[in-house]
Amino acid sequence: MDHEKARERIEELRKVLWENSRKYYVENAPTMSDFDFDALMHELESLENAYPDLLTPDSPTQRVGSDLERGFAQYPHRYPMLSLGNTYNIGEIEDFARRAGKELGDASFTYSCELKFDGTAICLTYRNGRLFRALTRGDGVVGDDVTANVLRISNIPAVLSGTGWPEEFEIRGEILMPYESFDRLNKERLDNEEAPFANPRNAASGSLKLLDPEEVGRRGLMCTLYHIPAQSIAFDTHSEALDAAASWGLPVSDERRVVDGIEGIEEYIRYWDVQRKYLPFATDGIVIKINELAWQNALGYTAKSPRWAVAFKFQAEEALTRLLSIDYQVGRTGAVTPVANLEPVQLAGTVVKRATLNNEDFIAQMDIRVGDTVKVIKGGEIIPKIIDVDLKSRPADAVAPVFPSVCPDCGTPLVKEEGEAKRFCPNSDGCPTQIKGKLLHFLGRKAMNVLAGEATVDQMYDLGLVKTPADFYALDTQKLLMLSGWKEKSARRFLQSLDASRSVGFDRVLFALGIRYVGETTAKELAKHFGDIDSLASASYDELRSIRDVGDVIAKSVCEYFQDDRHKELIDRLRHAGLQFSMEAGSDASDALAGKTIVISGNFSIPREEMKKLIEMNGGKNSSSVSGKTSYLLAGSKPGPEKIKKAGELGVRIITEEELMQMLPSRNDSRNDGFPASETEPTLF
Ligand code: IVH
User: Fold this and answer.
1) Which helix (H) or strand (E) holds 360?
2) Is the pTM higher than 0.85?
3) Confidence class for position 336, pLDDT limits 50, 70, 90
4) 197 alpha carbon to ligand 1 midpoint, in Å?
5) Distance 116 CA to ligand 1 centre (A)
6) What structural domains does the chain harbor?
7) Probe ligand 1: pick from 25, 35, 78, 84, max atoms within 8 Å of CB?
């Protein structure tokens, strides 16, 4: 390649890499796979090596991506937060070991092999045994101060235990979202027709950057720490420093191993390439570090990464299969989503038959046709994704899909609004799928918490018993007995549950209304800010925008909702039915548990999530493990024996559900009626 061509290619690569870096770090919505990103970065690196005069300090090879955002105070890092050199090729790990050996002469040294945790980097500073500050990586030099959020992550101690910690030191690691929390969060987001997070890593960094620490606490994040800058501690080896950190109560991984040669490294890689599938959180490779701090020091750093460590990355799990057909699903807000039906294929431990195709632009850009062989990935995502199509093996009879121009359910012509990637069915109060979706959402566990499943709601609608949520409150036993299989008892239970929903707090009623883009958290914010529905309904766009986390899209959607006469009528009818439309009246909230940290264990008369919410609603804090900071261990039936033992050892008071209820202001609770909570949740696919 001549000099001019190299210059052009370098410019091109830098542009693509910067853009993707921004999408990855700031928007938490990457558009390129890690593998492709790393490949382009390597190409840029080798071009810059070949043409050193073209290397500039602002090149993406010289800087780490930036996650800095408005809304947070920023502080400089004491030591820059660097990235790691990485490879997908075991030969390059051997090169790394050889190079290190050569540079260190005859000195004997060992390697610390660790998991490469796939989350978002964090830097914690402890001063006099207390968490002083938590900074994100930022641009590597300056980070966002997320201390308030980090304090809500249950395995990060605010105060150290043990002895021997330095007066002040930094420790770095990763904030992760375990698969369980990730699946729950994305289910909620899909329920609310919000875009799901692409993977646990984006969900973790998006959650860490929320402006509401309470919500961060609810996201179920965890932390694992893996690096203490050598300047701030006096140990000989990295592994000893981490062992000490563990003894101070800091979360350090148990999966670390110290090995003394390339064979040991390879064995560790082989083991974790398989075993990592059973970990409860995402990892994307292995990190190999020279263990002796003196040798780390001798090897030093490049502008971007340490010379004493390297990452071996695993390829994301993917599979090839055939695209058999495409379904077009209508959601409760009318958005139409294409979903691929695939020839069943084994992927990351499950059989995949369906995958999302995002929207029609995606299908067109990728030129995906029915009959094509497509590449599907599943890297911790609940919904597998199609990421590529094999054009070479396209059969002659492959058919380009035609996105429906009318609603697959009610036949109304679909509309595409400006700036929206999706087409919508505008027939919001005539399209059966949308209506049923809205009704089901209204009754949902996180909304009015009325006990009825999808099949029941479908039947009620098909029999003409309900068309809007207000119709539920006009149901009586006689009408309910029209439902197949329903007896006096089931009708009574349903009516009781409906009655209990009259005391559900205003924030949840607001969420139940199903205003587009108003999820659970936004509903809470709006309820808190305005206090009642009339103030909210008359709020201007600007007033809405002034609220934390309310952007242009939400503000517009709320304004539009309250301008619609059909919605005004619905709210009037619900108000007459006795629902709560202001914060003061009937709100379940109290501060009876303020300052109390509660660990729950075992089964209760209400689902565990409900119990946790109840604790939070009354000012308490949930924690997953018993420690000296725990106020009560709330034990249901079959509690975990370790938790009971630990509570006994630490003198933590164990309370029963009944005792907890006595601590709360008296409430109208008829939730305990034996229905499984999942009955009210719609099926995803
Ligand atoms: S050590 C000076 N150890 O991966 C470098 N990093 O892609 C200190 N990461 O920037 C980093 N697991 O955010 C280290 N066991 C581990 C890691 C790890 C994940 C992250 C870290 C790093 C990135 C590079």
Assistant:
1) helix 360-366
2) no
3) very high
4) 22
5) 6
6) 3-54 (1.10.287.610), 81-313 (3.30.470.30), 318-393 (2.40.50.140), 432-576 (1.10.150.20), 597-667 (3.40.50.10190)
7) 84
